[in-house]
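Reviewers of the previous submission asked for a worked example of the structure-prediction workflow described in the proposal, so we include one complete record here. The input consisted solely of the amino acid sequence. No template or homolog information was supplied to the procedure at any stage.
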Amino acid sequence: MTSTATTTTTTTPATAITATATAILATLLPHRRTLETTGYATTADFPSQLDQLETLVAARRPILLTLPGFPCKSPNPAKVLGRLPDEGERLALRFLDRLCARIGELYAPGARLVICSDGHLFSDLIGVTDPDVDAYNDALRAMIRTAGLSHLTTFDLRDVYGDLPCDAKRAQVHARYAPSLDSLRAETRGAATGDGETLRLYRGITRFLFEDATGFDGTRSALQRACRTRAYGVIQRSRAWGALIADHHPGAVRLSIHPQPRGAEKFGIRLLDAPDAWMTPWHACVLRRPDGSVRLMRAADAAKQGQLTHQDGRPSHYEYETGRPIPF
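From that input alone, the workflow returned the following structure tokens.
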């Protein structure tokens, strides 16, 4: 006599873990910051992030995201409205908090994001004073607290080195974590890596430094040379900051405000709509359109299209005015 057994297919725990991690990564994907103009990326293009998420999900731990950024406002008055956070930062913070909330809808332990403010790492290289960095960071924390953005926390050099002078803090981070200048130059020449990402980053940072330079008395070519030199310093300290963050927040999924290619260890995240993949709220201001949508742009350009609006007693953003010409 032959008996027939009925086979029931069940979802294994490993499959469920992968499905949850994939769903979380899919939540990030529409907001990816990239220089790519063709092709559609999928979660399979980001194995590093998927592995990290699977590890966290398997342990039923909250998803921890770290985002170096929100350093200080650009010193270029043609780009920004002042030295303190404004509507651009306010909207970016709300977006990041909502992103974590959406992850919490997919995964019960939830998610939190640590904003790793890196202004003190670069202030001496970008022409911003350390007191201005402190004022920006303090105002950013106040924004988070006032808006009740419970998924966000902040982290900066004060959390690591306390009240040490800023020059001493920068020296300690550089000495412990920064790569050598020779290795970075080799990467930009393609001798160490062939993907060109370091060269693109170097060029992007050089452009920002050149645009933000104020009070330079030399020639244009001299300023370009100075910015190229300082760009290497910015990358060195950026790498050092990333290593320090990894030490203090092990297992976190690393986000980046810079464009990142598929498969990179960092996932580029776009905070607000902008015409440039490199533009951030601290290098621009917000123009709010009549339909309620917003766009980042240089303050000088936004002023040609809208009316300046204040909030909390200081400039906040521009409101679009019908009939004003749209600059190229």
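The first helix runs from residue 13 to 28. We consider this example representative of the routine output the project will generate in years two and three.
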